[in-house]
Design goal:
73% helix; alpha/beta; 12 helices; single chain; Transcription Regulator spoIIAA; 2 domains; 371 residues
Length: 371
């Protein structure tokens, strides 16, 4: 059980000594440190005896040193070796120079930061083109020698990165289609044109939301997984070991992930289209009384298959971008966990941004082509 810290003044051979007893810790210190400082400041004391101290931590050591500094003549500290080491440690920390305050950024520092950012952007762009070139070589090598491709890894990744995402993609686009139908029904009913909600659902789901929602979900799901998997191998020097053995990491790691997403994303987009139309059909049937037969008749006659193929045409391009970003960020991981977390975050952010940007570019191109 902890004993409260205490002290008493003793005199021996004409020398006054402060004898400390009890546990000089943060829990049991109380006001003993302040009392010791007042006693040392009131009358001269030649030594502080710490041999009777039970336990002592940094808080107690700080209180003892602070009390010793309050004396007119610093007393000598007599203590066991372990307490002496603790007192020396705390005393060194007290005498350390204070942390310098951060200076206000100057104009030179601003331009320095801008310059470093520009150089970093250029280096990043160069590394991206190097990655693309290496990936094209790996794809060409796979087309020329298909027997050398690790098809087991390709199809395993296709199932894990693509097909396993069907439930979340279908559920999300189902609710997106239902929300679009609800909004359209509320607005179009005001003008007595609720029948056009079918065209609204068809255009929104088949042209935009099917591929966009799929790409965004895969950006958060697959791009991060690719970056984390390859990055952890980079941290553990497994990729260096592969290169020593004569195995190209792009053939063994990057191409299977590229192939898996390239194959499965159109399938996921098709599943998202069906789910989105099902959500819109449910709302149109329950809220507007439009039968499924009427819904599909309006969909075929007034929307057509053109918008479906417009949406599907974006899927291969977006799959290439998402897989490429995830794998490239994984290959850039350094040797620490902080680098891994930073690269995984960058993979998700870059993939989402690129997905929205490419979808906007496709929209402009198809608008100019009047498709």
């Amino acid at each position: 059980m902890a004993k409260a810290a205490d002290f008493n003044l003793a005199e021996e051979d004409g020398r006054r000594t402060a004898v400390c007893t009890g546990d000089w810790t943060a829990i049991s210190l109380g006001r003993a440190g302040e009392g010791l400082a007042q006693a040392l400041a009131a009358e001269p004391v030649q030594a502080i005896d710490l041999h009777s101290v039970g336990r002592c931590d940094t808080t107690g050591a700080f209180a003892i040193l602070k009390a010793a500094q309050a004396a007119h003549d610093p007393p000598r500290l007599n203590a066991r070796p372990e307490v002496n080491r603790l007192l020396e440690l705390v005393d060194t920390a007290l005498k350390a120079e204070p942390t310098p305050t951060a200076r206000r950024r100057s104009l030179h520092a601003l331009f320095d930061r801008i310059g470093r950012g520009v150089i970093g952007f250029g280096v990043d762009a160069f590394d991206t083109w190097v990655f693309i070139g290496h990936l094209l070589v790996a794809v060409t090598r796979a087309i020329a020698h298909p027997r050398r491709v690790r098809w087991a890894a390709c199809f395993s990744l296709a199932e894990r990165a693509g097909l396993d995402a069907i439930p979340i993609v279908s559920l999300t686009t189902f609710f997106i289609g239902a929300v679009v139908a609800l909004l359209g029904a509320n607005q179009l009913t005001t003008f007595g044109a609720q029948v056009y909600v079918v065209e609204l659902i068809g255009l929104a789901v088949m042209r935009e939301f099917n591929v966009l929602i799929t790409a965004l979900l895969l950006s958060g799901r697959s791009a991060s997984a690719f970056a984390a998997e390859i990055g952890s191998m980079k941290m553990n020097q497994e990729i260096d070991a592969m290169q020593v053995l004569g195995v190209d990491p792009f053939d063994a790691l990057v191409f299977p992930r590229f192939f898996a997403l390239f194959v499965t994303m159109p399938l996921l987009t098709f599943a998202a289209t069906i789910a989105g139309l099902a959500g819109g059909l449910m709302v149109a049937w329950t809220q507007l009384g439009l039968s499924p037969a009427f819904f599909f008749d309006q969909l075929l006659n007034n929307v057509g298959a053109t918008h479906f193929w417009v949406g599907m045409s974006k899927a291969p391009v977006l799959s290439i971008v998402i897989a490429g970003i995830g794998c490239r960020q994984g290959m850039e991981v350094g040797g620490d966990v902080e680098s891994l977390g930073r690269r995984v975050t960058s993979a998700v952010v870059h993939a989402i941004f690129s997905t929205i940007l490419i979808d906007a570019i496709f929209a402009i191109i198809y608008m100019k082509l009047n498709i």
